[in-house]
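Hi R.,

Here's the chain you asked about this morning:
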Amino acid sequence: MADLGASPFTITATGSYSIPANVTSSGGGGGGGAYAKRLSIPVTPGNTYTFTVGTAQNATTFTGDSSVTVTAAGGSTATTRTGGNGGSVASSVGDSGLVFAGGNGGTADNVANRGGAGGGEGGCSTTTGNNGANSAGSLGGAGGTGCDGGNGGKGGNNNLGGAAGTIPGGGGGGAGGNNNTGGAGARGEMIVSYTVTLSNNSSNFFMLI
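And here is the predicted structure, written out as tokens:
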């Protein structure tokens, strides 16, 4: 267990953190397949909370007091040649207008000796992540990219493995040909930003974004 570091504080792996003194509310933003943000989540100074950072298909999530939660859903894996879906808005939890889906993976040709499709981009802070491109003959499709989500990995050319997605939440590229390995999807992350303001009665504000 550790104290939250100086604001803004990026959490890159699941762990438990103690809320600083004189902090009573928070908000949260998760990376992952989807993007989700809450402007305020109640917490108790000195208490310890678990921040869960998703890997592979798992969600990135945090729950404060009164069961107030922020969750960014993970994306799904591809099914044979059909690209996996990006983390969905429906499976995520955040403030209205501050939840965006991850991009879908592309689809590979249904014939032999073809490249793999590109992975979807992680959800962005203002829009849905971009989809990965389909394969084109023996060439792998490009990974989704274009906003501030993690980039999707490029699909492998025929007989080559796919590239890994980049942090946060980029989907891995599909493998080209047979008996090769697709790229790994990237983990999510949380960015914690807070301001402590003391008044005469020592009320305070703590924000995660």
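One quick note: Residues 2-72 form one domain.

Cheers,
M.
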